[in-house]
Amino acid sequence: MRTIENEGGQSSTTIGALFVQVLRESAKGKTIAEFCGIRSEEIEQISLTLASALLKLIETRMPRLVEAMDIPSMVSEKIDSLDMKEVERIVLQVVKKELAWITWLGGILGAMIGFIQSIISIL
Question: Domain limits at 52?
């Protein structure tokens, strides 16, 4: 039986190793599509089919995935592991952002009410 030397300098005598070596040499510098002889139109169709199948799979398995992940306990553990100062900083940051929106909304509504009252008083 013949001995084959691979890229690492190790020798192998199996037919599988010879097959792998031939495949590696013939695939060098090629994409999987080029190696398999797939045209660009076919690549697009394969991509669409795979994406559709993957989305359907995710859609059907989502309840099981969410249940397996146990998100409420993960969130609870993460919050419990935070330092109290960090929790306070996060809460204040959210409150500041929300209060800014409330202030803007109040200003816009006040301007609209004032404008409408001005129009009504003129009439």
Answer: 32-69
